Amino acid sequence: MTTIHDVAAYAGVSIATVSNVLNRKGNTAEKTTAKVLAAVRELNYIPNALAKDLKANRSRTIGIIAEDVSAFMSGNIIDGISAVCETHDYAVTLCNLRAEHYMNTQPGMTYEMLPSYLPFQKAVSTAIDSLLSARVGGLIYIGLYPRDVSGILPDLGIPVVYTYCFTQNSSDYCVNYDDCHGSSIAMEHLISLGHTRIALISGVINSIPGHKRMKGYTESLMKHNLLFDPTYIITGDWGFPHGYRSCMQLLDLPEPPTAIFCMSDVLAFGALTAAHERGIRIPEQLSVHGFDDLLTSQFYLPPLTTVSLPLAGLGKTSADLLLCIISGDTPEARGILIPCTEIVRSSTGAPVSVPPAISGNT
Amino acid sequence: MTTIHDVAAYAGVSIATVSNVLNRKGNTAEKTTAKVLAAVRELNYIPNALAKDLKANRSRTIGIIAEDVSAFMSGNIIDGISAVCETHDYAVTLCNLRAEHYMNTQPGMTYEMLPSYLPFQKAVSTAIDSLLSARVGGLIYIGLYPRDVSGILPDLGIPVVYTYCFTQNSSDYCVNYDDCHGSSIAMEHLISLGHTRIALISGVINSIPGHKRMKGYTESLMKHNLLFDPTYIITGDWGFPHGYRSCMQLLDLPEPPTAIFCMSDVLAFGALTAAHERGIRIPEQLSVHGFDDLLTSQFYLPPLTTVSLPLAGLGKTSADLLLCIISGDTPEARGILIPCTEIVRSSTGAPVSVPPAISGNT
DNA sequence: TCCTAATATTAAAACGTTTTAAAAACAATA
DNA sequence: TATTGTTTTTAAAACGTTTTAATATTAGGA
């Protein structure tokens, strides 16, 4: 590989001059500059970032630790990160913790238990060692699930930004989408369609997204003076079967809801499957609203109205924030929430004007 | 950050000794080794990979150029790559070409046109520069669509492995899943269920996956002496609407098929939507088979029988191959095909024993 | 005790840069 | 032509490692 020495020899100048031409424009005579540039082109010289970074004692690289790079949101977040890094001429080094693997192979494992599971800890420390030895300028930690990951990383002496997860430590930088807001815009959509009996199929209620999405739900009900009916709220896990069973249960109610807000698309799939089996027409007889906007939710039967997560935005904001910290700033805002967007498709619509269950009473 | 000098001073030895202890085990007296190791632990010394790699004149890093890191398969492929790299103590540097962006913003753009689109070329050369300046030992190119990408990279002087794409150059290393085989196992499944009238909803026929999946289809028909009926084959693009329309068209046939093999899950979604609208019961009246196994195909209505791509396997094999080449080997096999696996769910089943359309004729 | 052979340690060079301080070249003025 | 001031160029040191060749230490045998 051509070095700066080759270029200098070829151009008949010293290596210092070559470096000057390349890095401190305007400090070299026009004629010299031309000579050097010609040599660079001629010899196809590409500066050695290793040497450069060693000299500078900081590498123009940031690290990503992804709890699971194959999770549905990871690619989009990384996309956002890499876009920012490219414009700032930073490289990206990726470490993958393969957390989902532990989730699947350890019966009874929950996201919350992960940090105390030894093989996972080992994966974390391997990743850290790799990134520290590469002398990355900072790192972005991408969670697998929006939960508390306090203490998952020791003090590394380099800036860290967490995303798609939270930490209790108020001095940590954290970038996330706004669950509560997402929940609200979903409810606003349903309410604006005229629904008043809106049920909620909830995922794990004792979780951050569960809690916040619930908050958005109840707040919206209150804001619009709608009845908060506990029988309309069914909590459980995030799985398809829960969505299915809960929908069945809601349909069996003496006064079934006209709309169901599901805390995730997968729950919504379950709900739609149940409704389908019952022969309920969507959205005429029942509106179903999801949350997450998975890749194929647009193709569901029917296409699912849902809330889209600003994933690339998380990546972009995290990277902007990190580079900002690396460059010496200490931004005030340490917990940043990015709004979601409502995606209206055909699983929601206006309720039939007179709800069938009480039509005889009017 | 602690350097080898700090460790040497702390342990009261020379830096050469520290290096020996760390890198050439067994060449140092037991007592010295203990002293040095203690110092390393005490001072929390993490060797500077920058300096190490500079000295060695090759970095223990491989590059990934992903045409689109947010595409559905990228995460899984990268997962496979990173797993291998981790075990070999290699780091991974990621560059993202954001090809999908160009696809979406340039009307009429096709995958095949990408390489000649200037902004895309610029993205490629930026990525190359970044990786070459990092002195990566080799790189893996992850396509966005299994197509010919010949000439997309100039000669870089480092090993390259292509995956999720092809090249015409027989000296290139290429790792892909086996479309033809995937198509065959799908057909075997349908045939083994007793189907004899199997239609094909094809994506772009003038594409590598289109061509190969078609091959698997026709070969399976021939192998089992089943009639090859051109009216059962409908070609088009990869979009949902094509799946929908084609299914309608097939159902309108005087003798409709009992099973439809769709070249992609999205096409299958379209087909299932059409069947649903027609009130066709799945799989009793019609079996529908997909290809790709998208994340949520398991939750479709009904859960979709499909072909799963060995994505992590592509990554793993590519990385194994690349590291092998980097270490000096020149493996014989330059085009590697990895088999797919059949995922049986509920969108397929045995045909009704007497096909309704000809039941009166028996 | 001394010599030899084996073992253990280290000084110094090298990897490819950037940067500092000094030297060289040039231009302008007296 | 000197002198001064300005612009341009460069020698050399430094970044943190590994490695080579040389040196120091130790052990064993006479």
Provide a concise account of the structure shown.
Two copies of one chain form a homodimer. Chain A is α/β, with parallel strands linked by helices.
Poorly predicted segments of chain A: 354-362
CATH superfamily membership of the largest domain in chain A: Response regulator
Q: Helix count of chain A, per DSSP? A: 12
Cα(first) to Cα(last) distance of chain A is 86 Å
Give me the CATH architecture of the largest domain in chain A, please. Answer: 3-Layer(aba) Sandwich
Determine the strand fraction of chain A and express it as a percent band.
5-15%
Identify the biggest protein-protein contact and residues per side.
A-B, 57 and 57 residues
> Which sequence of strands runs across the widest sheet of chain A?
2-1-3-4-5-11
Please identify the top-level CATH class of the largest domain in chain A: Alpha Beta
Main sheet summary of chain A: 6 strands, parallel
Structural class of chain A: alpha/beta
User: What is the subunit arrangement here?
Assistant: homodimer
Number of strand elements of chain A: 12
Radius of gyration of chain A: 27 Å
What is the CATH topology assignment of the largest domain in chain A? Answer: Rossmann fold
Give the proportion of residues in helices of chain A: 40-55%
Which geometry of chain A do the CA atoms define? Answer: elongated
Q: What is the total number of structural domains of chain A?
A: 3
Mean pLDDT, all residues of chain A: 95
